[in-house]
Amino acid sequence: MPIDSSHGAGDEVLxxxxxxxxxxxxxxxxxxAAAYPGTPSSEIIETLSGFARxxxxxxxxxxxxxxxxxxAAAASFAGLRSLCVMKQNGVNVASDFLLHLVGSGTRGxxxxxxxxxxxxxxxxxEGESRHFAxxxxxxxxxxxxxxxxxxxxxxxxxxSEELRTIVMLRSVxxxxxxxxxVRLGELPSAGGSAAFLCDGPVTDAERGPMxxxxxxxxxxxxxQKVAQALKRFETSPFNAYEGPxxxxxxxxxxxxxxxxxxxxxxxxxxxxxVGILKLGTTWPIPPELVKRSLAAAGRVLIVEEVLPxxxxxxxxxxAEAAGEIGIKTIQGKNxxxxxxxxxxxxxxxxxxxxxxxxxxxxxxxxxxxxxxxxYAALAPRREQTFCPGCPHRASYWSIREALRxxxxxxxxxxxxxxxxxxxxxxxxxxxxAKTLHAMGSGTGLASGFGKLGGFGMEQPVIAVCGDSTFYHxxxxxxxxxxxxxxxxxxxxxDNSGTAMTGFQPHPGTETNAxxxxxxxxxxxxxxxxxxxxxxxxxxxxxxxxxxxxxxxLERKGGVRVLILKxxxxxSPEKKGKKGFLMRVDEGLCRGDACGCNRxxxxxxxCPGLLWDRQAAKARIDEVICAGCGVCAGICPVEAIRSEExxxx
Amino acid sequence: xxxxxxxxxxxxxxxxxxxxxxxxMASRVLANMLVRRGYRVTIGETFGMSQRGGSVxxxxxxxxxxxxxxxxxxxxxxxxxxxxxxxxxxxxxEYGNPGVKTLVNMRPIYPVGVITGExxxxxxxxxxxxxxxxxxxxxxxxxxxxxxSLGNPILGNIVMxxxxxxxxxxxxxxxxxxxxxxxxMPAGRVEANLRAFAIxxxxxxxx
Lengths: 648, 207
Hints:
The complex is a heterodimer. Chain A is an alpha/beta fold. Chain A folds into four domains: 12-234, Thiamin diphosphate (ThDP)-binding fold, Pyr/PP domains (Rossmann fold, 3-Layer(aba) Sandwich), CATH 3.40.50; 240-357, Rossmann fold; 391-565, Thiamin diphosphate (ThDP)-binding fold, Pyr/PP domains (Rossmann fold); 580-644, Alpha-Beta Plaits. In chain B, helix 2 links the parallel strand 4 and strand 5. Chain B starts with 10 loop residues before the first strand and ends with a helix. In chain B, helix 6 (156-167) packs across helix 8 (187-204). By secondary structure, chain B is an alpha/beta fold. Chain B has a six-stranded mixed beta sheet, sandwiched between helices.
């Protein structure tokens, strides 16, 4: 139940962290918001979309994070408040522009929200975006609860506008996707008006052109802005200490880790011994405030995710101030008190605090633990896989068959999206996908592999790429492959939307983030325009797809494109609607006597298919089956039957 | 602010199931009911890739005074609501304790490894024994069967939320549910949800 315009100032509502950030931006009068979808950040723009109005708020899903940041910056240059949102590794994509944006400065308040994913719960990396704030020298904020997520976002716009620099706000999955009570504030009524003033000299921050030169002068100016931010940080209400006046142990923490720390100290019953300094302004850390806390403390533990970012700042500060505050023992990630990879939780923090204080960590009664051990192995692992009815299962099935028939040891370069599961969980992609890196990297890697024939490499290379990933970062790699005449088969797994993150529109869809009709940038036409042959097929047609793939694999020469088009099983037009009613004809299914070695359940592995142990035959789970009909094409004796489902 | 006291503060609820069973929806509905009653609620959950056929879990922390961590400490669940039986066991192993109450929808969703014959799904009796021994009290429901009779298996999640109300541990009831579910849901779908809730409440009801 996301917030919408029916909620008013003063209402206390349950908001997801991402919704709270969106609300904060709305209360700050954001006029332009741009982003590329990525878990755990996507709900911010989705929430803002519901408030988009001409002349009041423009929202877009941009083709990638760098473009999103540029779109948002243009609004700031024209005097409007703007927001740009991305997941942690999106900041890498945007960082080249970000560095230069810091040089040019901003005008209307501009906030970059990065949602990091400690523990890589929905990522293939554990990248930490906080380092970018230090790298490019911009103020960094980290909210530690839901109300604060809203207030801090709102304040970030004020700070940005005061300093004329972009401000970064960093969330984590456990904030962005967690929910809590938030009391709403007023929404401004007036819309903004845009004009880019650019007739002044280059040094005129208000009327000059927006460029990062003269570089040394602008760089020095940015450092003055950061110093100005520090003054605000020293007295910011987002930094708070709770605990005894002279704590035995001081925890310095930020973000969700502040909640874990509070919980850990409570669990251990050590509120009278341990103090918690929760920092909301985390780059640069306010030195006077932190020094005061350090001076009062015996020992210090830094609790943060993922890398020792605060820890290193606190250690530098403690070393510089040692004469003033005494020599402090500071524990955290570097000494292994807390793990430097993976996310934290209240238990990890409690164990660390218990070890430092020399007390026992919280434990359950021994008899209960014995019972737990007895049942520990009872629940088998639940491996992730493609959904029932997912077109990717069908596509990879055909790719597997084609590569087997081809027989030259070919492989797939994977990419980012649901179809990445073929690389992460080999059985999901029938052991075909062998690389997985950044957005579009499958195509770039394939382009490289495709040039290794001269070194004796004979394995054919297939790059797979989702439709949204195609626009994001695959196009430059594909152009490279065409120009360099790399011998590859490029397969677009087009499921008509940014499925993994919740069906956000992209340049291939007929509507945009505002819900308005938008021109479609046709993937096939674009591929043809850069000089490739293009075949288009339906992945549910297994035999045709396999034959097309084998034909493309056998052809010599450069880039050969196959677009496999079939919308996602969870897409609004398909969800809950079965195309076919499936059943296994028990008379035809030969079970273990077949010789297929349970091809349908053991290899094809759709969750909608069951192996009935009593009957020793395959069966359809009608609750799970999505009715895509694909499995009818894999049974060697055609025992899996489909009939068209009645239209509801 | 409510004047109803919680059995414990924070009162920790884990709602668990398999991606696609409406776990997130169930946690939202329950949390919104409690926010309307004046509590502070924190829901911790993850979605995205973790949803695709995998185990899913929402942590609800209900309190009269504070915001709690979105992750419940290990061994600290007060109530486990499992929309799938295997997940009940998985969550009990991690968050169970001698005081925990557990509600289980007995309709299995087989992991891929079970479908392929690589691993075994525990038998009904084993599940009941494990859940029973690891819980102070346990209820076993056929929420999916009830939901199918209402026309949509997804309503199993609402049957389970009804069952939470039936326990009478928390100040929630059908009237409050109707107010919350009516928000942003087409009127045509509300009726089946109300019936699902009532079925669950009766199934776990004490009186």
